[in-house]
C-alpha cells in the first residue's frame, strides 16, 4: 500500500513506464501555443523532453536487463488499474526497452540537427516531432492490439505532418502517396484486428498467445486470416516488396532530420511483426505454430534483392539511403521468417546497428550535397568540362563552421559505407556475422529443421546486398569527395555534424562493446522465444494498491 | 440482416477499392472514405449482430450474456470513426496543397499522356 515507504518508491517507479508516452504528449501540447518566432525556445524544450525520455529509456533498459523480476510492477502497467485481459496494459520487456532507447537516441540526434536550420522550414516542427515520439513509444510499450492501432495512427498522423515539413511540390507529391498508402494500410489493420477479436474474443496480445492453441479448426482459419491481414498492414510499414514502392521516394523527399527519424518507422513494422509472430505464432501456438513464415522468408528475400538492385541503380544519395532501408527491412523480415532461434539475437543486433547507420546517413547526405546543383550526380560527367571553381570561397564566412569540412564529411561517409556494407571491423559486420553464424548453429529442435536451400539463398543475398551497398557507396563517394567537380565546400555548423558523429560513434561503441550488447540481445531473443512467460507475467500482474 | 450487412460491406469495399485505384485525388479520397465506412461496419459486425440487446449493463440487473451485446466492438468503431475522420481531413489538406502546387488533380501531379 501507499503508506509503506519502500512500496511508495516502487509505486512511483512503476509510473516510469507511462512517462515515455505522456511526457512527449504533454510537451507537444505545450509547444503549440508558443510563437513560431521563438524556435530556439521550442527546440530547447523539445530537446529537453527527448533527453528526459532518453534517460528514462536508459533506466527502463537497466531494469529490463537485470531480469523481469526487478522491474517495477514486474514490467506491466495497468491503465485504469484493471487487470489484463480486461483492461489495457503497457508491457515492458527487454525488446521494448531496447526499441525505446533506440528511438529516443535517434530522436535526440535528429532534433539537434534540425535546430541548425531545418526547423525554420515550416510550422510546428517540434510539436509534431514530440507527437511522433509519443506514438512510437506507445507502439513499443503497448500490450493491446487496438491500443497499438491508436498509437500507430498517432505516429502516422505526426509523420504525415513531418514528411510535409518544408512543403514544396516534391514533398507534397510524395506525401500524398505516403498518406494514401498508409490510410489504406490502416483499414487493413482494423479489419485484421476485428477478425481476431471476433473469433478469439480478446485484443490483449499476451492473452491471445495463451488462447491461440485452443482455438477450434473452424475459427482458426479466421484468426489466421485476421493475422495475415494485420501482417500486411505492418509489412506496408516495414516496406516489404511489393508493398514498398512508396518508401524510397517518400524518404528521399523528406527533410534530413525527418528522414533520420523515419529510419525507425520501418522498424516499428518489423518490431510488431517480430513481437506478434513470435508471441502468437511461436512454438506454443499448436496448429498455428509458424504461421506465415514462408511468406516472411520469400517476401524478405525479394525485398533484399529489390533493395540491392535499387541501391545499385540510385543516382542520388537520398534514394540510395531509401533503398538501404529496404535492404535492412528485408534482411530482418527474412531472418524472422527463417525461424532459427539462434538468428534472433543477431537480427536484433542488426536492427540496432542498421537503424543507427541509416539515420546517420540520412543526416549526412544533406550536408554533403549542400551547395551542389540538383541532379549534380547525374550530370557529373558533363560538369567536368566546366572546370573547378575557387575552392576557398566559402571559408571566409564567420560562424561556428567546422574546420576541414570535407575531411570530416568524408570520414563520416566512409564509416557509413563500411557500416552499410557490413565490412569489418564495425558493427555492420558483427551483425551480419551473428546472423549467419546463428543460421548455421541452429539446433534441429528449432522451428525449421536443418539448414535448407532458403538458408543458403539468404546467406548469398546478405553478402551480395553488402557488395551492392559497397559498390554504390564507392561510386558516389568517389564522385563526391575525390573528384571535386563543383568545388564549393559546404558550410557545416557544429550542431549539424555532431549528431552524425554521435550516431556513428554509437555504432563504433556497439562494435567495441559487442560482447555485452550481444548478451543483451541473446537474453531478449530468449524472452521472445518463450512467449508464455510473458503471457503469465501480463495476465497475473497484480492491480496497483492491492499488494 | 446478415445478408444485407454483408452485401453492404462488400459493395462499399468494392467501390472504395475501385475509386482508390483511380488517377484523380478526389476519387482517391472518396475511395478511402468508402473503405473506412466498410471497415467500420465490419468491426461492428464482428461483435455479432443482435437486435434489442444494449451494450450497457442496467443498474441492478445481472450481466446476462443473452440480454446484452458485446460493447467492445462498438467502442472500437467509435475510435476508428474518429481517427478515420481526422485522417480524411488531413488527406484533404494534402490534396488541396498538391492541387495548388501542380495545377492538376492527378495523383502523380502531372497528366499522363493519353488521359
UniProtKB/TrEMBL annotation, chain B:
Broad class of the protein's primary localization: membrane
A GO CC term assigned to this protein in UniProt: plasma membrane
Molecular-function annotations in GO: antiporter activity; monoatomic cation transmembrane transporter activity
InterPro entries in alphabetical order: CPA3_antiporter_subunitC, Mnh_C1_su, NUOK/Mnh_C1-like
GO BP term (any one): proton transmembrane transport
Locations listed in the record: Cell membrane
Annotated Pfam families: Oxidored_q2 (PF00420)
Domain of life of the organism encoding this protein: Bacteria
Membrane topology: Multi-pass membrane protein
Segments passing through the bilayer: 26-44, 75-97
Entry keywords, A to Z: Antiport, Cell membrane, Hydrogen ion transport, Ion transport, Membrane, Transmembrane, Transmembrane helix, Transport
Family per similarity comment: Belongs to the CPA3 antiporters (TC 2.A.63) subunit C family.
Record-given protein name: Na+/H+ antiporter subunit C
Gene source species: Sinorhizobium medicae
Gene: phaC
Amino acid at each position: 500500500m501507499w503508506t509503506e515507504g519502500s512500496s511508495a518508491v516502487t509505486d512511483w517507479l512503476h509510473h516510469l513506464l507511462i512517462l515515455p508516452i505522456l511526457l512527449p504528449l504533454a510537451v507537444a501540447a505545450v509547444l503549440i501555443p508558443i510563437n513560431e518566432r521563438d524556435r530556439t525556445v521550442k527546440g530547447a524544450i523539445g530537446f529537453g523532453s527527448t533527453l528526459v525520455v532518453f534517460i528514462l529509456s536508459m533506466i527502463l533498459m537497466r531494469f529490463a536487463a537485470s531480469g523481469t523480476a526487478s522491474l517495477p510492477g514486474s514490467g506491466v502497467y495497468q491503465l485504469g488499474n484493471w487487470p489484463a485481459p480486461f483492461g489495457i496494459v503497457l508491457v515492458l520487456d527487454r525488446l521494448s526497452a531496447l526499441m525505446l532507447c533506440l528511438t529516443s537516441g535517434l530522436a535526440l540526434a535528429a532534433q539537434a540537427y534540425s535546430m541548425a536550420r531545418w526547423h525554420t522550414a515550416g510550422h510546428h516542427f517540434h510539436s509534431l516531432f514530440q507527437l511522433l515520439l509519443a506514438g512510437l513509444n506507445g507502439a513499443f510499450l503497448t500490450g493491446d492490439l487496438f491500443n497499438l492501432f491508436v498509437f500507430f495512427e498517432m505516429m502516422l498522423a505526426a509523420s504525415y505532418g513531418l514528411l510535409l515539413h518544408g512543403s514544396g511540390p516534391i514533398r507534397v507529391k510524395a506525401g500524398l502517396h505516403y498518406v494514401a498508402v498508409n490510410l489504406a494500410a490502416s483499414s487493413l489493420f482494423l479489419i485484421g484486428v476485428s477478425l481476431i477479436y471476433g473469433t478469439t474474443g480478446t485484443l490483449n496480445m499476451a492473452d491471445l498467445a495463451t488462447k491461440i492453441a485452443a482455438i477450434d479448426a473452424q475459427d482458426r482459419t479466421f484468426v489466421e486470416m485476421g493475422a495475415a491481414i494485420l501482417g500486411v498492414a505492418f509489412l506496408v510499414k516495414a516496406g516489404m516488396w511489393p508493398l514498398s514502392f512508396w518508401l524510397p521516394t517518400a524518404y528521399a523527399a523528406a527533410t534530413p532530420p525527418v528522414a533520420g527519424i523515419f529510419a525507425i518507422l520501418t522498424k516499428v513494422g518489423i518490431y510488431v511483426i517480430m513481437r506478434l509472430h513470435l508471441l502468437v505464432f511461436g512454438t506454443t501456438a499448436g496448429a498455428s505454430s509458424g504461421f506465415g513464415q514462408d511468406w516472411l522468408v520469400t517476401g524478405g528475400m525479394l525485398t533484399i534483392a529489390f533493395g540491392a538492385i535499387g541501391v545499385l541503380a540510385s543516382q542520388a544519395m537520398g534514394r540510395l539511403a531509401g533503398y538501404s532501408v529496404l535492404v535492412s527491412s528485408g534482411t530482418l523480415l527474412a531472418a524472422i521468417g527463417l525461424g532459427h532461434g539462434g538468428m534472433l539475437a543477431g537480427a536484433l543486433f542488426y536492427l540496432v546497428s542498421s537503424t543507427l547507420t541509416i539515420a546517420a546517413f540520412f543526416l549526412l547526405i544533406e550536408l554533403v550535397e549542400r551547395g551542389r546543383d540538383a541532379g549534380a550526380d547525374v550530370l557529373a560527367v558533363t560538369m567536368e568540362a566546366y572546370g573547378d571553381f575557387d575552392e576557398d570561397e566559402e571559408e571566409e564566412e564567420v560562424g561556428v563552421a567546422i574546420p576541414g569540412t570535407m575531411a570530416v564529411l568524408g570520414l563520416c561517409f566512409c564509416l557509413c559505407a563500411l557500416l552499410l556494407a557490413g565490412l569489418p571491423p564495425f558493427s555492420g559486420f558483427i551483425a551480419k556475422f551473428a546472423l549467419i553464424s546463428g543460421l548455421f548453429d541452429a539446433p534441429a529442435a528449432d522451428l525449421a529443421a536443418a539448414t535448407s536451400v532458403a538458408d543458403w539463398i539468404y546467406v548469398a543475398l546478405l553478402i551480395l546486398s553488402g557488395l551492392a551497398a559497397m559498390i554504390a557507396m564507392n561510386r558516389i563517394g568517389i564522385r563526391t569527395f575525390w573528384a571535386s567537380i563543383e568545388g564549393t565546400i559546404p558550410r557545416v555548423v557544429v550542431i549539424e555534424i555532431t549528431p552524425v558523429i554521435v550516431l556513428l560513434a554509437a555504432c563504433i561503441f556497439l562494435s567495441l562493446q559487442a560482447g555485452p550488447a550481444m548478451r543483451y540481445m541473446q537474453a531478449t531473443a530468449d524472452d521472445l522465444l518463450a512467449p508464455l512467460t510473458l503471457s503469465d507475467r501480463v495476465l497475473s500482474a497484480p492491480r496497483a494498491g492491492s499488494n | 440482416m446478415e445478408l444485407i450487412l454483408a452485401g453492404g460491406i462488400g459493395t462499399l469495399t468494392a467501390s472504395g477499392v475501385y475509386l482508390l485505384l483511380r488517377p484523380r485525388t478526389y476519387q482517391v479520397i472518396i475511395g478511402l472514405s468508402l473503405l473506412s465506412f466498410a471497415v467500420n461496419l465490419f468491426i461492428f459486425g464482428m461483435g455479432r449482430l443482435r437486435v434489442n440487446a444494449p451494450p450497457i449493463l442496467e443498474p441492478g440487473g445481472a450481466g446476462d450474456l443473452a440480454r446484452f451485446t458485446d460493447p467492445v466492438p462498438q467502442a472500437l468503431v467509435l475510435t476508428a470513426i474518429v481517427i478515420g475522420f481526422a485522417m480524411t481531413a488531413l488527406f484533404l489538406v494534402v490534396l488541396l496543397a498538391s492541387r495548388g502546387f501542380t495545377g492538376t488533380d492527378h495523383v502523380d501531379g502531372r497528366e499522363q499522356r493519353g488521359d
